[in-house]
Amino acid sequence: MTTIAVLGAGKIGEALLSGLLQGGRPAEELLFTEKHPERAAELTEQYGVEGLDVASAAQRADVVVVAVKPQDIEPLLDQLAPVIRPGTLVVSLCAGLPTSLYERRLPEGTPVVRVMPNTPMVVSEAMSAISAGKYAQAEHLNLVDDLLQTVGKVARVPENQQDAVTALSGSGPAYFFYLVEAMIDAGILLGIPRDLATRLIIQSAVGAAQMLNRNDQHPVILREAVTSPAGTTIMAIRELEKHGVRAAMLAAIEAARDRSVELGRDHEAD
Length: 270
Ligand SMILES: NC(=O)C1=CN([C@@H]2O[C@H](COP(=O)(O)OP(=O)(O)OC[C@H]3O[C@@H](n4cnc5c(N)ncnc54)[C@H](OP(=O)(O)O)[C@@H]3O)[C@@H](O)[C@H]2O)C=CC1
Ligand SMILES: O=C(O)[C@@H]1CCC=N1
Hints:
Layout: E1 4-7, H1 11-22, E2 30-33, H2 37-47, E3 50-51, H3 54-60, E4 63-66, H4 73-80, E5 89-92, H5 99-105, E6 112-116, E7 126-132, H6 138-149, E8 152-156, H7 162-170, H8 172-189, H9 194-213, H10 219-226, H11 232-242, H12 245-265
Parallel strand pairs: 1-2, 1-4, 2-3, 4-5, 5-6, 7-8
Antiparallel strand pairs: 6-7
Helix pairs in contact: 7-12, 8-9
The chain binds NADPH dihydro-nicotinamide-adenine-dinucleotide phosphate and (2S)-3,4-dihydro-2H-pyrrole-2-carboxylic acid (A1CAB).
C-alpha cells in the first residue's frame, strides 16, 4: 500500500484525487490537506478521502504531492521540512518551481519529481510531463509514471523543458476552452441560439480531437480535408491569417513559458 497525500486540494489537487479514485485507487490510500475547513469537509463528503493537517499527512504519506500555487510554496515548505519522513517521495505539480528548491529546503537526499499535469485529469485524459530531481531514482520516476498513467498519458522530459511544457500542455486546455468560447460567440453573432451553438462547437471539438488522437494523420492534412476549393473554410482561414492568429498563438505560448521561468526565479537561492 502506497499512501499519497495531496497538499493543497484546489483545482488540480482535487482533479488528481478524483482521477486517482476513478482509476481504482482506494480512498484509504489517499489523504489531502486544505487551508479551509469547509472546503476540506466538502471534499471528504464528496470523495470519502480524509483531510488532515500537513504534519499528520506527512507522518502517514509515502508520497507527498505538492499542489499549492507557486506563490504559496515557502510557508508550505516551512511546515513540511521539520515533519517529512526520510525517504518520502515529493511530487511537485507547481508551475515554474524547480526540484532544486525542494532539495534545498527539505532534508538532505529527499527524492523529488517535478510534474506538469493538466486538468483533463478529471476525465482520465491528463497529459503529464515528469522529470526527476537530483535524488530521485528510477523507482521514484516509475512510481510517478504509473500513478499518472491511471489519469492519462505521461511523457518523461528533461527538467529544463518543463517551463515550455507548462506553457504547452499545462495551460493548453485553457487555449482550447478559449477557442470554443470564441466559436460559440460567433454562433451567437450569426443568430444561432446559444444551446445549439454550444452543442455544434463542442461536438466538433470532440470529433476533431478524436481524429487527431488516431495519430495517423498530421493536423495540416486534416485541415486541408475540410478546406474545399473556393469554399467556406478557406474564407475563414484567410481571416484567421489576416488577424495573425498563428502568430498570436506563438507569442501567447512564449509568454506563458516566460511566466513559468519567472515563477521559478522568485524562489532561486540567494
Ligand atoms: N489549474 C491547473 O490547470 C494546473 C495547475 N498546476 C499547478 O498546480 C498548483 C495548484 O494550482 P491550482 O489547483 O490551479 O490552484 P488552487 O488555488 O485552485 O489550489 C491550491 C489550493 O491549495 C490551498 N493551499 C494554499 N496553501 C496551502 C497550505 N499551506 N496547505 C494546504 N493547502 C494550501 C489553496 O487555498 P487558498 O486558495 O485559500 O490559498 C487552494 O485551495 C499550482 O502550483 C499550479 O501551477 C499545474 C498544472 C495545471
Ligand atoms: O496558469 C497556471 O499558472 C497553471 C499552470 C499550468 C496551468 N495552470
